[in-house]
Amino acid sequence: MDFGYDARTEELRDTLFAFMDSHVYPAERVFAEQVAQAEAARDIWQRPAVIDELKAQARGQGLWNLFLTVRRHKDQIGEIAEKYGGGLTNLQYAPLAEITGRSGAIAPEALNCAAPDTGNMEVLAEFGSAEQIERWLLPLLDGEIRSAFCMTEPDVARRVRDQRPQVVVVGRDGPALQAFHRDGQDQPRSRPAPPAVDDLRAAGHARRDDQAEHAGLRVHRLDPRRSR
Q1: pLDDT tens, 76-95?
Q2: Does 60 fall in a domain?
Q3: What CATH number has the domain bearing residue 36?
Q4: Using CA atoms, how far apart are residues 112 and 44, in angstroms rounded to an integer?
Q5: Does some domain include residue 139?
Q6: What is the value of pTM for the model shown?
Q7: Per-residue buried b or exposed e for 123-150, using 16+ beta carbons within 10 Å of the residue's own CB
């Protein structure tokens, strides 16, 4: 397989390198200062304002939603990727992700290519209903909101497919899910929070979407180590 860069990849790499030099790297000091100010004000979950400034600049240069790659076959996610993404393949996107990783705290989010949003957007793009796409996916693709990912198993690796569920608690009000780990839920703009639940019948994962302000959704403890 040829892993060389085609003309489109080279063009985007040049644009991204310039963006990193002119905007991202200089913003690292501002980001650190705003984080320190938020910590001093005991508001560590508030996202630094410089991120929104970088998002506007990245979007203006066409460096937006590049993670949402096109597929060989035309399907729902392929159509969404062509309309809202960069129209790239995984092979084209990979070297761009490597570049943003050089300033991992801010560059991926500046391009709307940060986890857990990327994985959640891919799932919604591929399997989401029209209502879920309208309610969650489009605002995520537009950078208006952020999302969370909730893990339901406390004692296993996050990506182990054969993990066994320890999550369903049956009470007077019916079954409930317990999430032991959540990526991104602490962000003020976080909206959908899909737990990954082991499905023994399919030997895979089942997922559901919840809005952060759902009446039955409670955050019991925040980990300050994950604030940034």
Answers
A1: 888 888 889 888 999 999 99
A2: yes
A3: 1.10.540.10
A4: 21
A5: no
A6: 0.76
A7: bbbeebeeebbebbbbbbbebebbbbbb
